[in-house]
Amino acid sequence: MPAETNDAPQRRLDFWERFTEWPLILAAVVFLAVYAWEVIADLQGAARHVPEMVMNVVWIIFAVDYCTRLALASNRRRWFTHHLPDLAMVALPMLRPLRLVRLLALVGVLQRSAGAALRGRITVYTAGSVTLIAFVASLAVLDAERAAPNASIATFPDALWWSLVTITTVGYGDLAPVTSVGRWVAILLMIGGVALIGVVTATLASWIVSLVTEENAEQEAATRHQVAELHQQVAALSEQIRRLTAPGAGAGRPVRIEAMPGAEHKRTPAAGGRGSTGLPRLDSNQQPSD
Fold first, then answer.
1. What are 4-15's pLDDT values in tens digits?
2. What is the pTM of this model?
3. How open is the CA angle 155-169-36, to the nearest 5 degrees?
4. How far is the CA of 205 from the CAs of 11, 127, 202, 212, 215, in angstroms?
């Protein structure tokens, strides 16, 4: 009974996370569309009121989700320490682009829908993650750098180019953020790029190892099957030899033994059970010749 009581909060938390997965993904998609519209169009004044209101509503949804999950956690202190990034995304306005991390759940859904083929899952995971991270980083760095003096990132194409160069750890240096927020975005983007490359490399390596292991297992299974067949054949031959060499084996039965290839004579059973020697029969009046 106590075990069931302790498991009840975890079950409620799991149910809540499953129930809110798609609504939160939809909220993140809306946030991404509105945030991209605001940044790329460089909305000012009254034109910013509508997107800001929509993003505030999404912020409230994320805040309610965070508080609910914290309340449903069986060990709230442990859950709180393991979800500090969620708290930062809700509490700090400067980190509002990080709320789009919720879209990584959409990448996970697409990955599951790709089936059991590992290569397909790697492709979906890599393409989805790179596209999402690069696009969000481009919006964030453009939002931070556009109005800064001496900024080299002033348009969305420049921001997207900088994001792709940074996430691939190439770093040409032609474009670089000058604000503190932009540099923090660059740090997170570099860490995400290195982590993504490591995940993809490790997954490919494990896939190659699994292929080699499966091939070896198939060869070993075939070898064991062949050895088992040889054992059966040897056992059958041994049984036949035992029967033929047993005392009285074949007594009273005529035996016909074919000569080996190249032999000129055959040994056939004779009357009375005594076989001939295979030599020419001599007439009683014929003398043997030298």
1. 556 787 888 888
2. 0.60
3. 30
4. 36, 18, 5, 11, 16
